[in-house]
From TrEMBL:
Gene3D superfamilies: 3.40.50.970
Domain Thiamine pyrophosphate enzyme TPP-binding: 71-218
Keyword Oxidoreductase in record: yes
Keyword Oxidoreductase carried by entry: yes
The protein, known as: 2-oxoglutarate ferredoxin oxidoreductase subunit beta
GO MF, any single term: thiamine pyrophosphate binding
Organism: Streptomyces olivochromogenes
Length: 359
């Protein structure tokens, strides 16, 4: 990544700011000396291994990579990465990471968060980071439950979910994190699964190369409080009919012998799944992750039924170029210095727009 020479000027400038590693690195270099402490069988182990295995591909010095997390099981992540990191406060990881990425453009900044952390108390912070297009990579672990606090329903739990906090079933309609991100004008949105190491790594690779905010939703199994939540997407036989693997520039087809496909309904404009025939084969959509309009990406995100998860798209749904917030901010600061010289914080604080309160 550090030697990339294609893409926008923003991309090239951002990459050249980050120092490269002096020597070739391996997965071992990114493993910290901390004992990994999640429940045996937790999907977080698979994600951690994939990220540690992928980090050497960046070719960056470990000291110039930072992982910021909030609160939750997934938020222990920074402890286990041999990079800089911060275990921050509930829901605020995107805000803290925004400040870091904006002030230290020589860093590669990653956010690790969960469905409860990001979409409940952290909802506002997440959507504003996405709309600003800060140079962050956000990994959103979605297990559809609150794991750290022992099994309450979360913002992604399905309607009717029986938990400790909803003994008669949840009444809340769940968030679709991918739909939410696309609605917030995110420039890169993807979904993958914890147990599919190859797919997860490929999505991480594309997210890392993207200029601006990249959100990756990772379906992650909590085998203690919500075991088997994504079994339909992991069981080989069921997954063949349920998982829609998106590839830019390719027809959206899936199933045994790729016998099913996605078309646009001529009456409603919605997307629907059909059995491919000679008559309708030309109507099968070709995936365009780089389309300027988010309309089709959003429609794809709505295909998955929240209860059964049948027809769930995975892969990169959207990847478009937009101005990067921290680059624009740096340009403004440079312009201000050129026009006015370096600022004086003391003078600003004691400026003319002050008053004295008399007791």
């Amino acid at each position: 990544m550090a030697e990339t020479t294609t893409g926008s000027a923003d991309t090239i400038e951002a990459l050249t700011l980050v120092p490269k590693a002096e020597a070739r690195q391996s997965m071992k270099d990114f493993k910290s000396d901390q004992e990994v402490r999640w429940c045996p069988g937790c999907g977080d182990y698979a994600v951690l291994a994939a990220v540690q295995g992928f980090m050497p591909e960046l070719g960056l010095a470990k000291e110039n990579i930072v992982f910021v997390s909030g609160i939750g099981c997934s938020s222990r992540f920074p402890y286990y990465m041999n990079t800089y990191g911060m275990h921050s406060i509930h829901g605020r990881a995107p805000a803290i990471a925004t400040g870091l990425a904006s002030s230290r453009r020589d860093l590669s900044v990653w956010v690790v968060t969960g469905d409860g952390d990001a979409l409940s108390i952290g909802g506002n912070h997440l959507i504003h980071a996405l709309r600003r297009n800060v140079n962050l990579k956000i990994l959103l672990f979605n297990n559809r439950i609150y794991g750290l606090t022992k099994g309450q329903y979360s913002p992604t739990s399905e309607v009717g979910k029986i938990t400790k906090s909803t003994p008669m079933g949840s009444l809340d309609a769940p968030f679709n994190p991918v739909s939410l991100a696309i609605g917030a004008e995110a420039s890169f949105v993807a979904r993958t699964v914890d147990s599919d190491r190859k797919h997860l790594t490929d999505v991480l690779r594309q997210a890392a190369a993207h200029p601006g905010t990249a959100l990756v939703e990772i379906y992650q199994n909590c085998n203690i409080f919500n075991d088997g939540a994504f079994e339909v997407l992991k069981d080989k036989q069921q997954a063949e009919e349920a998982v829609i693997r998106l590839e830019h520039g390719q027809q959206i087809r899936f199933g045994a012998d790729r016998a099913k496909g996605v078309v646009r309904d001529q009456l409603t404009g919605d997307l629907k799944v059909v059995t491919v025939t000679p008559e309708n084969e030309a109507q099968i959509l070709v995936h365009d992750a780089h389309s300027a309009s988010p309309t089709t990406a959003f429609a794809l995100s709505r295909l998955a039924d929240p209860d059964t998860l049948h027809h769930t798209p995975i892969g990169v749904l959207r990847s478009v170029e937009r101005p990067v917030y921290d680059t624009q901010m740096a340009d403004q600061l440079d312009t201000a210095i050129e026009q006015n010289g370096k600022g004086d914080l003391a003078s600003l604080l004691a400026g003319g727009d002050t008053w004295t309160v008399v007791g």
